[in-house]
Amino acid sequence: MSPEAGTGSPIGGTLPRPRSPATRDLGMRASLLFPDREVAERYYLPLIYTACRTCYSELEPQEIFDRATSGRVTTDKQQDLIRRVIESGHGSTIEHIVFTFAISGVTRTLSHQLVRHRAGVAFDQQSQRYLDYKRPSYMVPGTIADAPVEVRERYLAEMDESLAFYGEMLEAGIPGEDARFVMPNATRTNLIMTANLRSLIHMSGLRLCTMAQWEIRRLFQLIRHEIFTVSPFLGSFLAPKCVPLGYCDEDRNRDEHCPIRPHKDNVLAAWAEKRAAAKAKGREVPTL
Ligand SMILES: Cc1cc2nc3c(=O)[nH]c(=O)nc-3n(C[C@H](O)[C@H](O)[C@H](O)COP(=O)(O)OP(=O)(O)OC[C@H]3O[C@@H](n4cnc5c(N)ncnc54)[C@H](O)[C@@H]3O)c2cc1C
Q1: Are residues 262 and 236 part of one domain?
Q2: Angle between helices 45-54 and 61-69 (to 10 degrees)
Q3: Nearest CA residue ID for atom 47, ligand 1
Q4: What is the tally of structural domains in the chain?
Q5: What value does the mean pLDDT of the chain take?
Q6: Does 206 contact ligand 1 (Cβ within 6 A)?
Q7: Are residues 108 and 129 in the same domain?
Q8: Do 229 and 166 fall into the same domain?
Q9: Ligand 1 atom at shortest distance from the alpha carbon of 203
Q10: Residues near 189 by beta carbon (within 8 Å), at least 6 away in sequence
Q11: Residues 255, 194: one domain?
Q12: Please, what sign has the CA dihedral across residues 257, 13, 9, 151?
């Protein structure tokens, strides 16, 4: 049993919060299994373009798809329409393409959050019931890796003890499905996740937000990176939700400590000021 965290940080000092989850090697991976770059370039843009264009064209979708895949409709033109349709919120057009990821070395803390997403996404996860682990491993969060030595060592001892007890119970004939009850949230797990682009954009909006838990945020940074490698255009739609919204709607950011976008309270206050000024000048202001 081993932490396999590879945090590499010196022990001691205070308990700092990691500034960015991307600065540590947490021993987790997300690899895009499908599509590869060739498939993404050849089919993904034309498929979305065909879905968008079919709504506004007398042409049959077969013809639209042929024009897109043969280059008779340029990539720029396809991207322009797709961008406008996505920004208008016509989400069904981007449900036609899917991305499949192998996700490994993440904790059960993360997977519990990840599988809360229900729409447009499928998961298969390593079973703690059917698998008798020979070497369960766990993650060490950065704050604990950087904690005073006695805190870190106590954490490592607790993890090792729980997982050693798990092994002892298996040896004593306790079924894996019951022995696993001693496994901590930090235990690592593996999943396969397939999601359509609409759900990936939605999940990324929530999970790339700085209010999200650091490990799942890190996972979506990796996912975003993977999609960029096959399609920078499609990858560019994966962003914290405040980016397309233009404002932050997170209650815990009313103080705007995250500066990516202004909080909606302040946007509405500025808007109210503008309305009052317009009214004072005798201009008609529409009401709800
Ligand atoms: C920062 C953060 C903190 C969180 N804290 C907690 C917490 O303390 N406790 C907790 O339990 N959870 C928590 N969650 C999980 C959260 O409540 C959601 O369950 C999770 O993010 C899945 O989001 P979703 O339902 O929008 O996504 P999905 O299930 O992926 O759904 C996508 C969208 O489809 C629509 N949709 C899906 N299913 C339905 C349906 N049945 N009916 C109508 N519309 C539907 C909705 O518009 C939804 O937004 C947290 C999430 C975040 C990002």
Answers
A1: no
A2: 140
A3: 119
A4: 2
A5: 91
A6: yes
A7: yes
A8: yes
A9: 30
A10: 106, 107, 108, 111, 125, 126, 128
A11: no
A12: negative
The yes-or-no answer on residue 37 being catalytic is no
Separation of 241 CA from ligand 1 center, angstroms? 13
192 lines ligand 1 (CB under 6 A): no
Q: Cβ-count burial of 84 within 10 angstroms (0-12 exposed, 13-18 middle, 19+ buried)?
A: exposed
- Tell me the pLDDT band of 284, cut-offs 50, 70 and 90: confident
Residue nearest to atom 46 of ligand 1 (CA): 119
Nearest residue (CA) to ligand 1, atom 18: 116
Q: Return the pLDDT at 288.
A: 65
Q: Same structural domain for residues 173 and 260?
A: no
Same domain, 154 and 270: no
Give, for ligand 1, the residue of 92, 95, 113 to mutate: max count of ligand atoms closer than 8 Å to Cβ.
113
DSSP 166-201: HHHHHHTT--HHHHGGG--TTBEEEEEEEEEHHHHH
Q: Is 212 in the pocket of ligand 1 (CB under 6 A)?
A: yes
40-50: average pLDDT: 97
CATH of the domain at 204: 3.30.1360.170
Identify whether 88 is part of a domain. no
Q: What is the pLDDT of residue 24?
A: 75
Per the structure block, which two tokens stand in for 150?
A: 């006695």
Domain assignment present for residue 281? The answer is: yes
Whether the pLDDT of residue 270 is over 70: the answer is yes
CA 128 distance to own-chain centroid = 24
Residue 133, amino acid: Y
The range of the structural domain enclosing residue 276 comes to 246-288
Q: 188 with 214, same domain? A: yes
What three-state secondary structure class fits 151?
Answer: helix
User: Does some domain include residue 118?
Assistant: yes
